[in-house]
Structures are given as structure tokens and as C-alpha cells.
């Protein structure tokens, strides 16, 4: 299964890349093909015109067309968000809002949040779930929150902290759920045309 891992922070010294690498390794260990979508690398501008709002006489930026194609190739998504002022990381929302609903619809998504403090971004996670549902994703119920993430996952994405066992157990549970529901959706798509997929 192809799984897009979508990071949410572009700050210097950010920790989302650590979490993303750890998740990618866990996916690979289960035989999946992860692809990390990193807003710090893609450097999308602050949203002015979403891909689907460009007029016929104006060519969308090549990076938007490439990213949409790569997103369309994914079977499921895992969103990794920090929590800024009790909200989702702005770069993550900016990334999502550049693409039409039919980029996301009829797929499943899981959410992992993190923070340097004690609560692991749980409020941002709930806010993000509302957004994912609005754009057509099936946001699955199992969640992973990673408090004090700087002490738990190193720069290479290895989990070496004192919560290693519980973190890895929780991520495996999240991946079990994502596999179960995504495989069901993929099987259904093989025999049935989706009811609609407009923008």
C-alpha cells in the first residue's frame, strides 16, 4: 500500500521530520511504500489560488500539478501535526488547501500529533480531524499523541526515549487500523465506481 506521510511544520529546528521518519520506517517494516510530503521542501506559497481555481487561460505552477499527481497515487495518508496556539500547524493547512477535494476523497487518513510539552498536540489533532472530514477523507478514530517528542525520537527517526515501548505499540495500533480500513476501501473500489468525485 502506498501511504503519504504529510508533515506539518516548516520552522527551523522542527520536530515533524523526526516523527515522519519514524512513521515511514514503521510503514516500510510492514511492507508498505511511504512517501513523505514535506512543506519545507516543497515551499508552497501562502495560499492565493488553489489548484482547482486557476482560470483556463492561466497555467498552474508545475509544483502543484506534480504534487497532486503524487498525492493521487497514494492509497492512504498519515498527517503529522504540531500544535501552535492550540491549533494545527499553519503550513499543514496551507498544503491541504492548495488541492481540490477529489485529491483526497474516498481514502482513509490517520493523525499523529506531537509537542515539546506534556499534551502531545491533542487539541490540534481534534481540529485537524474536522478539516480532514470536510475535504472528504475518512479520518480514523485511533490517534497517537507524542508529548515531549524531543526526548523520545531522535533526528534519524529512531525512538530511543523512556516511552519507546508505548509509542511503538500505539503506532502499530494506528497502522493496524489504517491497513484494515484502507484495504476495505481499495477492495470496494475494484468492484464499484465511487458515487461521485467532483472537485
Automatic annotation (TrEMBL):
GO-annotated cellular components: cytosol
Recorded superkingdom: Eukaryota
Q: Which InterPro entries match?
A: Flavoprotein-like_sf (IPR029039), FMN_Rdtase-like_dom (IPR005025), NAD(P)H-dep_reductase (IPR050712)
Gene Ontology MF, one: oxidoreductase activity
Per the UniProt record, one Pfam family is FMN_red
Q: Where is the NADPH-dependent FMN reductase-like domain?
A: 1-149
- Any idea what this protein is called? NADPH-dependent FMN reductase-like domain-containing protein
Please tell me the species this chain comes from.
Oikopleura dioica
Amino acid at each position: 500500500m502506498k501511504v503519504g506521510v504529510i508533515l506539518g511544520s516548516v520552522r527551523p529546528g522542527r520536530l515533524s521530520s523526526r516523527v515522519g521518519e519514524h512513521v515511514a520506517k514503521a510503514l516500510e517494516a510492514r511492507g508498505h511504500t511511504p512517501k513523505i510530503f514535506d512543506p519545507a521542501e516543497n515551499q508552497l506559497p501562502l495560499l492565493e489560488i488553489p489548484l482547482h481555481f486557476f482560470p483556463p487561460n492561466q497555467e498552474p505552477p508545475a509544483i502543484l500539478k506534480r504534487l497532486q499527481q503524487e498525492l493521487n497515487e497514494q492509497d492512504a495518508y498519515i498527517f503529522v501535526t504540531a500544535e501552535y496556539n492550540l491549533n494545527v500547524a499553519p503550513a499543514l493547512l496551507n498544503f491541504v488547501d492548495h488541492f481540490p477535494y477529489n485529491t483526497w476523497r474516498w481514502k482513509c487518513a490517520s493523525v499523529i500529533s506531537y509537542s515539546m510539552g506534556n499534551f502531545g498536540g491533542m487539541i490540534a489533532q481534534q481540529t485537524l480531524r474536522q478539516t480532514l472530514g470536510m475535504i472528504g477523507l475518512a479520518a480514523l478514530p485511533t490517534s497517537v499523541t507524542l508529548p515531549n517528542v524531543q526526548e523520545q525520537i531522535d533526528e534519524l527517526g529512531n525512538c530511543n526515549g523512556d516511552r519507546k515501548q508505548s509509542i511503538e505499540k500505539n503506532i502499530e495500533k494506528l497502522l493496524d487500523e489504517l491497513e484494515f480500513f484502507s484495504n476495505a476501501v481499495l477492495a470496494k473500489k475494484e468492484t464499484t465506481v465511487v458515487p461521485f468525485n467532483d472537485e
